[in-house]
Amino acid sequence: MKIENINPQLQNTYRLIPTLPIHNPIFLRFVQFISRFKLKRKSLFGVAIHDYKLANSGVRVYTPSGKTSGAGLLWIHGGGYIIGTAVFNDRECAIYAKELNITVVSVDYRLAPQHPFPAACDDCFAAWEWFLDNADTLGVSPDRIAVSGQSAGGGLAAGLVQRIHDTGGTQPAGQALFCPMLDDHTATRTELDLIKHRLWNNKNNRGAWTYYLGQPPGLKQVPLYSVPARRQNLVGLPPSWLAVGDIDLFYEEDTLYAKRLTEAGVNCEFYVVAGGPHAFESLVPNAPVSIDLLKSNYQFLRRVLAL
User: Fold this and answer.
1) Is the N or the C terminus of the chain less surrounded, counting Cβ atoms within 10 Å?
2) Sign of CA dihedral 81, 268, 161, 234
3) H/E run at residue 53
4) Consecutive H or E run containing 51
5) pTM, rounded to two decimals
6) Separation CA 115–CA 6 (nearest Å)
7) Using CA of residue 15, residue 16, residue 18, residue 19, what is the dihedral sign?
8) Strand intervals (E) in 151-277
9) Residue 211: CB partners within 8 Å, gap ≥ 6?
10) Cβ distance 44 to 94 under 8 Å?
11) For residues 163 and 33, which has the higher predicted lDDT (pLDDT)?
């Protein structure tokens, strides 16, 4: 993809960002190894950070100082289901906690290929249950918790919301999905390989889905909740907000999912950024297009969380 296709506000940053061959198993193991050594902060922007172990995973909790609003956000990091940790989104989660005065719980889920589906999905569901079980201690109302995530984290968030809906009980107040990775069929479209999308291309996409599903993408059958876009019935899901750039690899699948949510009667806001590559709001957070996107996201969260 030519740099000229990218929004001018983002070009200088993306000119310097390589698209790494995450699909290569040797390179993937190297990236997973070095990710373990990222500095773990105890506080950021005046927000306290604590880690808690669950049975197979963990959660990272961000608590603002003083009395909180009583609302919460369950956050799920990205990384194609194969890389990343909760620590990678310390900045974003701490800002959510501080600016919205909410408690944020970030899921440190297991990664493929060592732990293919349903490991990450189970870890996210366990984190949701932990949040509900500890809501009183955290000063959060269980019915005022939204679910959110970016990229693969957005895909996991979408699958989690579907699973919570089917399980019953307390439901999320809303879901907010940043450039979510929703549909394994995209990875089967080899013509997309030629576009060479910035940061996350279709070769990485194909490898990641293969690692996560434990089978090639695009097969007729996939496990329930593993590929959110494959769900036929979206009726009854919570209010939704979905954002993506129109040059993101996931643009078409995200557009279709937002359309299907709306057709199912779900109140869904769909925010599209012209010339927005994958995950630009995290990589260039001070760009006006990123600030505007996050304003829309904050407005949505304030509404569904009654802030």
Assistant:
1) C
2) negative
3) strand 47-53
4) strand 47-53
5) 0.96
6) 35
7) negative
8) 175-178, 240-245, 268-273
9) 28, 81, 82, 112, 113, 116
10) yes
11) 163
- Give the tokens for residue 271: 């925010």
Q: Which long-range contacts (CB under 8 A, 24 or more apart) does 282-286 make?
A: 282/89, 282/92, 282/150, 283/10, 283/13, 283/14, 283/17, 283/199, 284/9, 284/10, 284/13, 284/14, 285/91
Q: Is 34 exposed, middle or buried (0-12, 13-18, 19+ CB in 10 A)?
A: exposed
Residues in the chain, total: 307
Which pLDDT does position 35 carry in this prediction?
A: 81
- pLDDT, tens only, 126-178: 999 999 999 999 999 999 999 999 999 999 999 999 999 999 999 999 999 99
Q: What percent of the chain has pLDDT over 70?
A: 100
Q: What percent of the chain has pLDDT over 90?
A: 91
pLDDT at residue 37 greater than cutoff 80? no
Cα–Cα distance measured from residue 241 to residue 238, given in angstroms and rounded to the nearest whole number:
10
